[in-house]
Design a protein that fits this description.
The protein is mainly α and 614 residues long. The protein has one domain: Alpha/alpha barrel (Glycosyltransferase), CATH 1.50.10.10. The chain is 43% helix and 7% strand. It has helices at residues 2-25, 39-50, 101-106, 111-135, 160-163, 171-175, 177-182, 186-199, 210-229, 246-258, 290-294, 297-307, 311-324, 357-370, 373-389, 429-435, 439-456, 480-488, 494-500, 514-527, 532-535, 578-581, 601-610, and strands at residues 141-143, 148-150, 207-209, 273-275, 287-289, 337-339, 345-347, 349-350, 391-392, 406-407, 410-411, 421-423, 462-464, 469-472, 540-542, 548-550. The strands form seven sheets. The chain has a three-stranded antiparallel beta sheet with strand order 5-6-7. A three-stranded antiparallel beta sheet has the order 12-13-14, with no helix packed on it. Strands 1-2 form a two-stranded antiparallel sheet. A hairpin with a 4-residue loop joins β1 and β2. The chain starts with a helix and ends with a helix.
């Protein structure tokens, strides 16, 4: 009888210890014997947590097996522990003395630090804005090292890196208008609007990319006009005496000058560039990227509904439909470069980064704004194809074994991997996943990009996930990771890294307008919990350039009949129930995870190791 008691006691002890460890680390998922954890699986994960003590070399193992190594040093960035007064303490806080490094580092963000970060974001914005106005205005951009302005490269028309964006129309000032309001500077906003009205003209012999002119100029003019005339006054009384819709007139004028891009194409997909005075250049190429041709619908659609002219929305929607009808029958994927006359795919790479990114973004955002069922049907189908063919790694972000989820570049027809790099523009995708309600996948992908940031102090333009090294050593102060962080409403150490960078952005003599219109805006909003965008009863969405537009019922009303139905297209308007259908995944998240880190420490460590942090 005594030995039986000993055996029973040992079994009970093992179960008790397993329960405690499961509660402490949240490492259980499967059910054995009626409990919500699997004993052997939990012990395996605990072994991963403490394997660094063994010092074994496992560099040739899979990512999911290479978890040992580095212990992070505590720095000034380490956040304070959650105070005892918190009513909803993490279940991990039951074991404060045994918190792992990730819980200690990321479990809280003090209010005093939020205020400091907000002030740093504002300082960063005004450093760029004030110096642009002092040294560069009315030219398009500031060269921060030389402290001089830059316009189009008229001596080298083939320099599309510059000429696609700069049109000799005070780009940075226009692109920055709504950021001034977000930062609460009504006086400077009004002064900037008057400067635009008094000095900007689009009657210029400038050849620009349709996509860039649309998202940076047209989108900002529309956004600023809406905020100026919004009867709800979310930012207070921002209008001024004598304003007579001049920004809307400028937007209309620019859009008319972009329309020739949609003419004389066999597919309805627009030419990539137009001359603002003469139309499509005679030597224009017949190739364009999917994002460039398919990311015009938000701005063109809002303009159409503001002025009651369906032309702009119709041409933009026709281009989206044309691209959609060219997708692969086998995978449902699109390529990244297409011939606008033949409809043949010139670039067969399908991914989430450059050439593809905002196409997916605008399918969903167009639906949110306009309520067209067609847009959401396309987005749902595209998202399913992305999950089926681009996503690699374990099925669940926060459970199970295997490599962390990763989205790769594949051949649009076969789904086979084409290369082993991803680019920084792909970092927008977690934010889009949040809008779609797929928060779990968003958390995992965001953690991957943040790990790359932690390793290199910035997000390389192109990162090779197989070599764990950048392919392109360059960071032009892009906003995509900050945007996704904002939409996840997390806080990070990105601000400190930006603060330490050279004021010009990695010694690069160019301050692109998106740094002020997006990067600084999202950083500021991350830490300004009392911003009108957060407190207002009105709901807002951001364009792909970060411009603020309200989700307004007037954008779901048209002054014209439905667009002609085309093959594969749905045109019936969807009821305004997006918010009801996509409110939250909270009910599906276990109670113990709601107040803990969004990603379990074991998986955060795995992702850090995946990018070579240790």
């Amino acid at each position: 009888m005594q030995w039986r008691s000993i055996v029973v006691g040992l079994v009970v002890l093992r179960l008790s210890v397993s329960c405690v460890l499961w509660l402490a680390f949240g490492l259980g998922s499967n059910v054995s014997w009626g409990f919500n954890f699997h004993l052997s699986f939990n012990l395996h994960k605990l072994d991963l947590l403490f394997r660094e003590e063994k010092g074994t070399d496992q560099r040739n193992n899979a990512w999911s097996q290479r978890i040992q190594g580095h212990t992070y040093e505590e720095t000034a960035s380490t956040c304070a522990k959650v105070g005892d007064e918190s009513l909803k303490r993490s279940y991990l806080n039951l074991f404060d003395g045994n918190k792992d490094e990730y819980v200690r580092r990321y479990s809280s963000f003090p209010d005093t630090l939020k205020v400091k970060m907000k002030d740093m974001a504002k300082e960063m914005f005004y450093f760029g804005y004030d110096n642009y106005m002092k040294y560069a205005f009315p030219e398009d951009e500031l060269n921060p090292i030389d402290c001089e302005g830059r316009g189009p490269d008229v001596l080298n028309p083939s320099n599309i890196n510059i000429n696609d964006v700069l049109g000799n129309y005070s780009l940075t000032l226009i692109d920055t208008l709504d950021t001034l309001l977000v930062l609460g500077n009504v006086t400077e906003f009004q002064r900037a609007v008057k400067l635009v009205i008094d000095t900007v003209s689009f009657d210029k012999d400038s050849t620009v990319q349709v996509f860039e002119a649309n998202i940076r100029i047209l989108g900002s003019l529309i956004s600023a006009h809406i905020l100026l005339t919004d009867p709800k006054h979310p930012f207070g009384e921002v209008g001024f005496e004598g304003y007579d819709n001049e920004l809307l007139h400028l937007a209309h004028d620019l859009a008319v000058r972009l329309l020739p891009a949609f003419e004389n194409t066999s597919t309805g997909i627009p030419y990539p560039r137009v001359n603002l005075k003469t139309g499509v250049p005679l030597d224009s190429i017949n190739e364009t990227c999917t994002a460039g041709a398919g990311s015009l619908l938000v701005e063109f659609g809002i303009l159409s509904r503001l002025i009651g002219d369906s032309t702009f929305e119709w041409v933009a929607r026709r281009a989206v439909r044309a691209l959609w009808n060219l997708r692969s029958n086998e995978t449902g994927l699109l390529g990244n470069v297409v011939n606008i006359q033949t409809g043949q795919w010139v670039g067969k790479q399908s991914g989430l980064g450059a050439g593809m990114d905002s196409f997916y973004e605008y399918l969903l955002k167009s639906y949110i704004l306009f309520g067209e069922k067609e847009d959401y049907k396309m987005f749902q189908a595209a998202y399913e194809s992305i999950q089926n063919h681009l996503r690699r790694g374990r099925e669940s972000c926060n459970e199970g074994e295997g490599d962390p989820p990763l989205y790769v570049n594949v051949n649009m027809f076969s789904g086979e991997i084409m290369n082993t790099w991803i680019d920084s523009l792909q970092a927008f995708f977690p934010g889009l996943q949040v809008l779609n309600g797929d928060v779990d996948n968003a958390i995992c992908l965001h953690a991957f990009y943040y790990a790359i940031w932690k390793r290199f102090g910035a997000l390389p333009e192109r990162y090779n996930w197989q070599l764990q090294a950048p392919d392109v050593l360059f960071y032009p102060l892009r906003p995509e990771l900050v945007e996704s962080t904002y939409l996840l409403y997390q806080v990070s150490i990105i601000m400190r890294a930006l603060k330490k960078m050279p004021k010009s952005g990695m010694n690069h003599d160019r301050m692109e307008s998106f740094f002020l219109s997006e990067t600084c805006k999202y950083l500021y909003l991350l830490f300004d919990e009392d911003n009108p965008l957060h407190k207002s009863d009105n709901k807002y969405i951001f364009t792909t350039e970060g411009h603020v537009v309200p989700i307004d019922k007037r954008f779901r009303e048209k002054q014209w009949n439905e667009f002609p139905c085309e093959e594969g297209a749905l045109t019936k308007a969807e009821p305004n129930n997006w918010a009801l259908n996509n409110t939250s995944n909270c009910n599906r998240i276990p109670e113990e995870r709601r107040y803990a880190l969004p990603l379990k420490s074991v998986y955060m460590r795995q992702i850090d190791h995946m990018v070579g942090l240790f």
